[in-house]
Design a protein that fits this description.
220 residues, mainly beta, SH3 type barrels, five-stranded antiparallel beta sheet, Transl_B-barrel_sf, PRC_barrel-like_sf, cytoplasm, Ribosome maturation factor RimM
């Protein structure tokens, strides 16, 4: 069973949640392409005013349609391509308390999962949540080790049986070849090859002085 994390991002602020990002212009008349992180892309503006991280600048969006991987909208005061280009990469935020609670127990906000400690069923600490990704075949949980390294596992009920937001912990099952031990730095078991010029071996007859090769006459 696949879990359904509600897409959002968190830039370290508990008060504001990133729900979208301006990715570029569509045409030359000020139409804006926005990547929405909400479960339904068109709901981007449904949770109140969209602002920058500080909350000082407000973006009034009028959604007009969809394009591949993004929604199309107009932003008040942005009337040409140059104005849109100046906003490229701008993240759009809403207040955290404006977001609705997930519809059922199998939904989670990405921002609520980031940084949570992860354990095996026996209580062994595995790492912490680094990120969640969707590569098209279901969500993937990235686990970051406390001392470095990372691992990725499917974010399914079979693999991740417990997500306890209230207690701030996640329990995962070991996954053969993907996650069999706590995450740590990658270790290279093979010594790197020598880059120096290899010297030829010394033959036995070159390792000693052969006295029978000295001339018979005396040397003065």
């Amino acid at each position: 069973m696949t879990r359904e994390p509600v897409h959002s991002a968190n830039d370290g602020s508990t008060q504001r949640i990133c729900v979208g990002i301006i990715v570029g212009a569509h045409g030359v008349r000020g139409l804006v392409k926005v990547k929405s992180f909400t479960a339904t892309p068109e709901d981007l503006g449904a949770y109140g005013p969209l602002t920058d991280l500080s909350g000082s600048r407000v973006f009034d969006l009028d959604i007009t349609g969809r394009a591949k991987g993004s929604i199309l909208c107009r932003i008040e005061g942005v009337n040409d391509r140059s104005a849109v280009d100046a906003l490229k990469g701008q993240k759009l935020y809403v207040n955290r308390d404006a977001l609705p609670c997930p519809d059922h127990e199998e939904e989670f906000y990405h921002s609520d999962l980031l940084g949570l400690p992860i354990f095996f069923p026996d209580g062994t600490k595995v790492g912490t949540v680094g990120a969640l990704y969707d590569f098209g075949a279901g969500d993937v949980l990235e686990i970051r080790g406390d001392t470095g390294g990372a691992a990725m596992i499917p974010f399914t009920r079979e693999t991740v049986p417990i997500v306890d937001i209230a207690s701030g912990r996640i329990v995962v099952n070991p996954v053969p070849s993907l996650l069999e031990a706590p995450v740590g730095p990658a270790v290279d078991s093979q010594a790197p090859p020598s880059r120096g010029k290899k010297k030829p071996p010394i033959r036995d007859n070159e390792s000693v002085i052969r006295t029978d090769e000295w001339p018979d006459e005396d040397w003065h």
